[in-house]
Specification:
There is one protein chain. 30% of the residues lie in helices and 30% in strands. The protein is of the alpha+beta class and 108 residues long. The longest helix has 19 residues, at 43-61. It starts with a helix and ends in a 17-residue tail after the last strand.
Length: 108
Amino acid sequence: MRYAAIAVAALGLSGCIASSGIIATGYPDEFFVNLVVAPFNGGGAAAYSIATSQAIDFCREHQRVFVVDHVKPAGDLAYPPTGTSLTFRCAPPAPVPLPAPIPLVPAR
């Protein structure tokens, strides 16, 4: 019986994070992720942290730069927010400046 209780507790704790995954919004290079974390696992602060790291990794995989568009609290708003809705863009990296030209005439 004790082992059954431990198994049930482990199953209950494993479902504490729910994510929509990264979804394209329909605008060029704009994406959305919605994440909810149970209050005893960190709630909205943990959800924001996880969603941001997922978005940064997604943009890096596509060799782009992560730019936040807007963030809204999500989930159960009766308590402190338990989730976050993050809309972001993956912008192209800034162009590398060209080096100064080398003078062909020797300096005097």
